[in-house]
Design brief:
By secondary structure, the chain is an alpha/beta fold. The chain has a single domain, classed as Alpha-Beta Complex (Ribosomal Protein L13p, Chain: A). The protein is built from 5 helices and 6 strands; from the N terminus they run E-H-E-H-E-E-H-H-H-E-E. It has a 4-stranded parallel β-sheet, covered by helices on one side. It has a two-stranded antiparallel sheet with strand order 3-4. The chain is globular, with a radius of gyration of 17 Å. 22% of the residues are buried.
Length: 144
């Protein structure tokens, strides 16, 4: 018995816009990651890129629950001694709010070549405007 492999037509990729205003960060990231991987389609196959493009707007208005605004920390390391830096969610939101959503979605996709390709289809913007109107994106409601 042979394994059926669906043919993924790259021309049929859709564009979706999700407004992050008032959405909870984790629930939004799950929704975005599923669309990027193509889990919402009947042709989903784990090792193929069958997903669509996702544009997230109003990234600075995303919510986090509990005390995560001040207690959750993002660590970065320069590679040098004493090169660890810690930033809270509030500090990241003030300097680069797109990074909050990008970091959350990145943690929910595969950590391999396919995952790196999938992340190129994610576009995050801090305001309500985006430069992808020519692709005629569908508007999706953020997960509650």
């Amino acid at each position: 018995m042979k394994t059926h492999l669906p043919k993924v037509n790259l021309d049929e990729r859709k564009w979706h816009v999700i407004d992050a205003d008032g959405a909870v960060l984790g629930r939004l990231a799950v929704q975005v990651a599923d669309i990027l991987r193509g889990k919402n389609k009947p042709v989903y196959t784990a090792h193929l890129d069958a997903g669509d493009f996702v544009v997230v707007i109003n990234a600075e208005k995303v919510k986090v629950t509990g005390k995560k605004e001040t207690a959750k920390e993002f660590m970065s390391y320069s590679g040098w001694k004493g090169g660890e830096k810690y930033r809270t969610v509030a500090q990241v939101r003030a300097s680069n709010p797109e990074e909050l959503i990008h970091h959350a979605v990145k943690g929910m996709i595969p950590k391999n070549r396919l995952g790196r390709v999938l992340l190129t289809k994610l576009k995050v913007y801090k305001g309500p405007k985006h430069p992808h109107a020519a692709q005629t994106p569908d508007t999706l409601k953020a997960a509650a």
